[in-house]
Design brief:
Layout: H1 20-23, H2 36-49, H3 62-89, H4 96-219
């Protein structure tokens, strides 16, 4: 209630409490809900859901390439050494035996490379699982952070609503108190005005009676 006007009252009551803020205080409006964690969680979830199913391709395994280069270098070195040793036994001349022996030495290293493929595949699968696990852990952490952030936001909204209710209740109380005070004062002034009118009327009546009495006396002479 912002204004109250009594009929024929030149000094009509006007509320000083224009708003709850002007009479009591102002509730602090909560900040907007921070969606950063929620956004990051959605990105992680997209990464997780968009992952391809596990497939092992030895030709694209970087670790296999490192082992392949290593075994090829060692195999070529073993082939050269074997052929050189075989040539010495034959008087320093190259022959088919030396070539065969050198090739066998080289192939033995390639077989070692093939033997290690199951271990490389197992390692690649473990890395795939580790990536899955890391994504899930990140998603869980971000979800917990987002949940905590939302809880704080919800609490701040509840506090804001309680503060608003408090200030509005206080505002209404002050308005009602001010209005009652104004009504009491106005009624008092009306009563005083009525009493003053009665006193004035009585004085005039007494004066009239006195004048009538004097006129009555004059008429006797």
């Amino acid at each position: 209630m912002s204004n109250y006007k009594l009929k024929d009252d030149p000094n009509a009551y006007t509320s000083k409490n224009i708003s709850p803020e002007s009479s009591s205080g102002k509730a602090k409006k909560p900040e907007e809900y921070n969606k950063n964690y929620s956004s990051l969680a959605n990105d992680v979830l997209k990464d997780y859901l968009s992952r391809d199913e596990y497939k092992y391709n030895v030709n694209t395994d970087k670790l296999y390439k490192q082992y392949a280069d290593k075994y090829k270098r060692e195999g070529q070195a073993a082939m050269r050494d074997t052929m050189a040793n075989a040539s010495i036994l034959s008087g320093g001349y190259g022959n088919s035996y030396a070539a065969t022996a050198g090739n066998q030495a080289y192939q033995s290293y390639l077989e070692k490379l093939n033997d290690i493929i199951p271990e490389l595949e197992k390692s690649a699968y473990q890395r795939y699982l580790d990536t899955d696990s890391n994504l899930k852990e990140r998603l869980e952490r971000l979800s917990e952070l987002d949940k905590s952030e939302y809880t704080k936001y919800r609490d701040s909204v509840e506090d804001y609503q309680k503060d608003r209710e408090f200030y509005e209740d206080n505002y209404r109380y002050r308005e009602d108190a001010d209005m009652e005070m104004y009504k009491a004062l106005y009624e008092y002034l009306l009563e005083e005005a009525d009493l003053e009118n009665d006193r004035t009327a009585l004085m005039l009546q007494n004066q009239k009676n006195a004048n009538d009495y004097k006129l009555g006396l004059l008429k006797q002479f």
